[in-house]
Amino acid sequence: MTERAMHAADRDIADALCEQVRSAYAERTPLRIVGGDTRAFYGRPVEGQTLQMAEHKGIVSYDPVELVVTVRAGTRINDLEAVLAEQNQMLAFEPPLFAESSTIGGAVATGLSGPRRPWAGAVRDFVLGTRVITQEGKLLRFGGEVMKNVAGYDLSRLMAGAQGTLGVLTDISFKVLPIPTATHSLRLTYSLDDALKKLAELGRQPLPITAAAWHHGELFLRLEGGKSSVQATQERLGGESLDASFWRELRDHTHTFFQPDDDQALWRLSLPPNTAPLALDIPETNIFYDWAGSQRWVKTTLDANTLRATCNAAGGHATCYTPHSQGGAVDPFTPLNAVVEKYHRNLKAELDAHGIFNPGRLYAAF
Questions:
Q1: Position 356 in a domain
Q2: What's the pLDDT tens digit per position in 235-249?
Q3: Per-state percent for the chain, helix, strand, coil, to nearest 5
């Protein structure tokens, strides 16, 4: 472990966190789990006593040779990425940083990934193990630090995207990857239909593409890999060079497209690969295609039922990113069907019998 990593690994407040959870469990007190509090917009508001995770931070262990790092949940993503970069390594799922205070625990809890997700994998694909505070205030370890570790592995992955509703993440072990040897981003002029056809064509070929987006008549691509492969693909595709900051702006919603609009809500449409443009009354300028078209950001005044029905018919779903207090949907996540809701309820009842962990964060009923 580097000197910087060792210096960061001395803020362990797990005992205090366990004690607060034990007290909340005994008194049936709801807890609002908070790290950097940069993703509060993602989900329903939670009323409860604050369980502050930001001081539980630092890198517990890091083995660059084995490509494994274990980090406390309150660690800022920027700090973790800086340590990994010293060894020419990275978090391949590109967790969004909605602010400097964004923590790795929040990234896992929300399960959000950046532009590389379709080509590298989602957050849960890189989670090897976790330490979790249970409803009784016990600190338990699930999974481990190797890809083939089976015991508890699925429960660790289940925590990704659970928004803290099943327990309190204290430590997470990740598989990390080397930073690509070469990278080049480019832009091409394409209509939407032509861009989607081009992306479908490129997707059938072994090309070093790790990000693909379209907006307002332009197709954006990122190439990463070996120098010769990136250079050959760059020469084949042509286009204008694109600054790498474009992908950070898209990932972190700092691109001008994401500027707040008093009259329109921001929605994320998740769709199967190669889905054609949806029959929605939304101008092209109000749609930003990411993940080669599988993730589409839209700004619209259309109601939730219309958006969700259209997405559902195409095999996808729609999530509202604008809080209800600012004109977004009352329920940001697509309602569960009866069978899936039953499993959600049973799991919640088993792991959080008294509903103390972020109650109502995902759905009003649990």
A1: no
A2: 999 999 999 999 999
A3: 30, 25, 40
Structural domain includes residue 119: yes
Among all chains, which residue has been given the structure tokens 């078209």? 293
Tally the domains of the chain. 3
**What CATH number should be reported for the domain holding residue 151?**
3.30.465.10
- Cα distances (Å, whole numbers) of residue 329 to 51, 303, 320: 26, 8, 6
Q: Is the same domain home to 171 and 206?
A: no
Quick check: is 53 in a domain? yes
Nearest to 16 by CA among 179, 142, 137: 137
- Start-to-end CA distance of the chain, whole Å, equals 41
218 forms beta bridges with: 189, 215
| 8 Å CB contact between 15 and 82 | no
Residue 51 has pLDDT above 50, yes or no: yes
Which residues span the domain enclosing 322?
Answer: 260-326
Alpha-helical (H) ranges within 33-167 are: 77-86, 104-110, 117-120, 153-158
In a domain, 80, yes or no: yes
| Same domain? 127 vs 228 | no
Q: Which of 252, 287, 308 is the last residue of a domain?
A: 252
- Is residue 192 within 8 Å of 293, Cβ to Cβ? no
| % of the chain with per-residue pLDDT over 70 | 95
End position of a domain, from candidates 292, 310, 326: 326
Q: How far is CA 67 from the centre of its chain?
A: 21
Mean of pLDDT values over 30-52: 96
Whole-number CA gyration radius for the chain: 21
Q: Quick one: tokens of 85?
A: 């970069």
- DSSP-based three-state secondary structure for 158: helix
Same domain, 73 and 19: yes
3-class secondary structure per residue, 227-238: HHHHHHHHHHHC
Q: Are 60 and 5 in contact (CB under 8 A)?
A: no
Q: How confident is the model at residue 145 (pLDDT cuts 50, 70, 90)?
A: low
